[in-house]
Amino acid sequence: MSALGVVIPGTNITPIVERVFSEKRGDDQLPVIKLGTGLIQSGDTPNDLVVGVISARLADAYKVDLGSSSPAMLNFTGFDGTTKKNRPNLAIGDVVFARVSVANKDMEPELVCFDSENRSEGFGEVAGGMMYACSCNLSQSLQVFDNPVLELLGKNLAFEIVVGANGRFVLNSNKPIDVIRIANILLGSSTNGMTWVAERIREIARSN
């Protein structure tokens, strides 16, 4: 069997999977491939809510970096209320919160800035705050409505968070130092557990 290379988060592993599964071992069993935390296969899942960064502006669309191997497309028509005279005005480097509307392995993902019921509240440019990268497992757990870490943080600290399923979140708070502290808690929560989270929150509360 041919040797496999190392893959990192964002690597398109489809060619590797196809090559490995086209080869059989001597015992006629197919090998098992395990994906580590945060590894992304080609494309994204339709209806995923993602945090992206504008990487280019085209005639009628933006290219958006989602942290994967290829950019996504965000057409001007993907914004609520867009007309020929009223177009979105985003700059390269701006952060957006969007929904994946189309995704398959043969084309770039397409994004829109409204939900499946055409409600645009909360979508679009994410102004202010700091963006952090994390594993996809962590970001997707933070999207759960009753996530215990966010619930405990919300009872003790004032902050705003926008979470993408693609391993990114944006934090904002009236106190910049709290943004860093909260981010450290979120990033450490998956490996340290709720007891550790509660201790870190108490430390922040005492310092405030």
From TrEMBL:
Pfam families found in the cross-reference section: KH_6, RRP40_S1
Transmembrane segments: none
Record's keyword annotation contains Secreted: no
GO terms (BP aspect): CUT catabolic process; exonucleolytic trimming to generate mature 3'-end of 5.8S rRNA from tricistronic rRNA transcript (SSU-rRNA, 5.8S rRNA, LSU-rRNA); nuclear polyadenylation-dependent rRNA catabolic process; poly(A)-dependent snoRNA 3'-end processing; TRAMP-dependent tRNA surveillance pathway; U4 snRNA 3'-end processing
Residue intervals of the K Homology domain: 129-169
CDD domains from the UniProt entry: S1_Rrp40
Family statement drawn from the similarity comment of this UniProt entry: Belongs to the RRP40 family.
Protein name (database record): Ribosomal RNA-processing protein 40
Annotated organism of origin: Paramicrosporidium saccamoebae
